[in-house]
Amino acid sequence: MFDISLRPLKDGLFDPICKYVPAFITPLHVTGLAFTFGLLCCYSISVTHTNNTLSLFFWALNRSLDCLDGALARHRGTASDLGGFLDLLGDFIIYSLLPIAIARASPPDTGSSLWMSVAVLEATFHVNNFVLFYVAAIAEKSSNMGDTGKGKKKELTSVMMRPALIEGMESGLIFTAMLVYPSALQALSWTMAGLVTVGIFQRTLWVVQVLAK
Question: Considering the entire predicted model, what is its pTM?
């Protein structure tokens, strides 16, 4: 919801760092490193709930490098569809694994209600990704037909993602809360699932309006 409005702040933080990145380190290297730290975060939190400092450290590195790779690509004029694809792929994998990893480390006596909340959250991710896929397909078709749309906002990713209630920033905050308060995973999963569902309806309404023309 706030990704576009916060873009200047993000650029102001990461653009100045790009000139200090050695030339032999490419944006794809940064993307791969961000993904690696994301996997380490998931692994570390899945092992224990009692000490989540390490997982939070890996998560902070993952989120920071995820911002840096795109900034570095734009700074060097090497932004590519491949880079955008790998960046989003890594994000989607980590976003899917993280709630499962936290649930795995839950106490043995945890009831099935926790896993039900995580399952519903993962299901909303699945549906939301399909809607995003269709939004991107419509945007690509419109672009090929020369209809770029008046007043179109600058895209923050390599594919069009129609604004909705929950986007990158909100997702990052909720995932961070899951890591800080793993015992609240069930409540946070239900909350996030509800917010994602609202976003699905928002984007679905836009798709229906566009296709009905």
Answer: 0.84
